[in-house]
Specification:
Blueprint: H1 2-7, H2 11-24, E1 34-40, H3 56-64, E2 66-67, E3 70-72, H4 79-88, H5 92-95, E4 102-104, E5 113-115, H6 120-123, H7 129-135, E6 140-143, E7 156-158, H8 167-174, H9 180-184, H10 191-209, E8 213-218, H11 220-228, H12 233-253, E9 262-267, E10 273-279, H13 282-287, E11 291-293, E12 299-301, E13 303-308, E14 311-316, H14 322-334, E15 339-344, H15 348-351, E16 365-369, E17 372-375, E18 384-391, E19 405-409, E20 416-417, E21 420-422, H16 426-433
Parallel strand pairs: 1-8, 1-9, 2-20, 3-21, 6-7, 6-8, 10-17
Antiparallel strand pairs: 2-19, 4-5, 9-19, 10-18, 11-12, 13-14, 14-16, 15-16
Helix pairs in contact: 8-10, 10-12, 11-12
Length: 451
């Protein structure tokens, strides 16, 4: 009843009622806080050190608030596992997200497939900060976050693939920001335009709903870095443009209605490396007879390498020959060009990965690529091909894989230099800012936040 009355009132009358409802649901003294997490996909920590990079908003937030020297991602250093680590405070050995989607194993001898459009409850196996916030009676929202589809603890959303009949979508259509036809073809639009619309949605959610927690993800830089390489002219332009999108959100949080209670946290999920060679790992399996081609040209067999940028994940289909094949495949790649090291299940604990006994998402071996080499999934006749581009996925100990972290606003220590942190510290820090506790997180909140 309180919520229904509150939504019918203008904000300056509405907020005290919502605040009272939060207290009734067990929320503490900080439940009027608003925390906005903005993820700039693929923004490497080393980029902040380049004085040529024109990012005045980000540099201002870092100067006036708190900034880390670097933020270590989890393995594998790709988008979904790390966005999930950011909101759970645990690595992939616990949250069990190891791809940009859910790996589906073939019934027979076909290749594994990655299915992105699966529900959050199927994919994520640890509590998230938005789960914790929602259970405490706070309001939550997301724009283009990942591994979050159909999450029951999100109140407002504008997803990666927006829906014409969605609540926020209908508002943007009504005010002329976007048309219904554009939303129907959203996925085929340019990444920069999509980011622009996602920013429009984030601003609209903040203006209309004042959520306690908003998770917001922008993708342009990741696309550009893959195609042109990190720190290229195109990459620099993309980072400067993202700075302007961050400013749009910060400008909203500086309005009187957010005064003294809004915090913005800027993160990225991983860094980036340039590469010169592509590893077509399944070519070697075909040469050794583990994979073979049917009459239609499609490969089939007992084991596959699934590429993840700087690493390759080996999956063995045959249970009868599993031990034999794992030993053979380890031998094949141990001295192969472009392979730094082959990791077995005995190493997964130190890598922060689940084992096959713990999750059907876990590989049987991990192939770590050398610098300048990236694993590729496209068809090829030769094991190594020359190519230029950018990628991530290398082990999280790689200096070039380190991500960014900065925070500004309520509860953030001013002028703080945090040194090297991990992204597992983000979720408990958000919780502290909101007056909550992230009991499942394995790392403490960052010091002096939330005071």
């Amino acid at each position: 009843m309180i919520a229904a009355i509150a939504l019918a009132l203008p904000f300056f009358l509405r907020f005290p009622l919502i605040h009272a409802q939060n207290k009734k649901n067990g929320a503490g003294d900080k439940k009027d806080r608003v925390v906005v997490v903005i993820s700039l996909d693929g923004f490497p920590a080393y980029a902040l050190k380049d004085p040529r990079l024109p990012i005045p908003t980000l540099r201002r937030l870092a100067s006036e608030g708190a900034v880390a020297e670097s933020m270590q991602p989890v393995n594998p250093t790709v988008t979904w596992p790390n966005h999930t680590a950011i909101v759970t405070g645990v690595d992939a050995s616990q949250h069990r997200v190891v791809f940009n989607g859910l790996l589906e194993r073939p019934e027979r001898d076909g290749a594994p497939k990655i299915e992105p459009w699966r529900d959050k409850d199927v994919m994520v196996h640890s509590p998230t900060i938005y789960d914790v916030a929602h259970e405490a009676g706070l309001t939550t929202a997301q724009v283009d976050w990942v591994a979050i589809y159909n999450a029951k603890t999100i109140d407002w959303k504008f997803p990666e693939l927006p829906e014409v009949d969605g609540e926020i979508e209908k508002k943007l259509i009504a005010d002329g920001t976007v048309t219904a036809e554009q939303l129907k073809t959203f996925e085929s639009s340019s990444q920069a335009w999509q980011d622009e619309i996602w920013t429009d949605a984030a601003v609209r959610i903040l203006e209309d709903h004042h959520p306690n927690l908003l998770l917001f993800h922008l993708l342009t830089l990741d696309d550009i870095n893959h195609e042109y390489g990190p720190m290229s002219n195109a990459s620099m332009t993309a980072m400067a443009w993202l700075d302007s999108q961050v400013k749009r959100v910060v400008d909203v949080l500086q309005r009187p209605e957010f005064a003294g209670r809004a915090t913005v946290i800027i993160v990225s999920d991983h860094g980036f490396r340039a590469y010169k060679h592509r590893i077509h790992a399944n070519v070697l399996l075909q040469e050794k007879g583990i994979l073979s081609a049917r009459n239609d040209g499609k490969l089939h067999g007992d084991a596959w390498v699934v590429p993840e940028g700087g690493i390759g994940m080996v999956y063995v289909n045959s249970s009868a020959r599993k031990t034999e094949l794992i030993s053979q495949i380890r031998s094949i790649y141990s001295n192969a060009e472009g392979i730094e090291k082959v990791y077995g299940v005995e190493d997964f604990g130190s890598l922060g990965l689940p084992t096959p006994a713990e999750s059907d998402q876990a590989p049987d071996l991990v192939l770590a690529g050398r610098p300048d080499y990236a694993f590729a999934g496209d068809a090829a006749k030769t094991y190594i091909t020359d190519a230029n581009g950018g990628t991530h996925g290398y082990l999280n100990s790689d200096p070039q894989m380190q991500a960014i972290f900065m925070a500004w606003g309520a509860g953030v220590p001013k002028g703080a230099h945090l040194g090297a942190i991990t992204n597992r510290e983000v979720a408990p820090t958000i919780a502290k800012l909101l007056g909550l506790e992230m009991k499942s997180a394995k790392s403490p909140a960052l010091p002096n936040f939330g005071n």
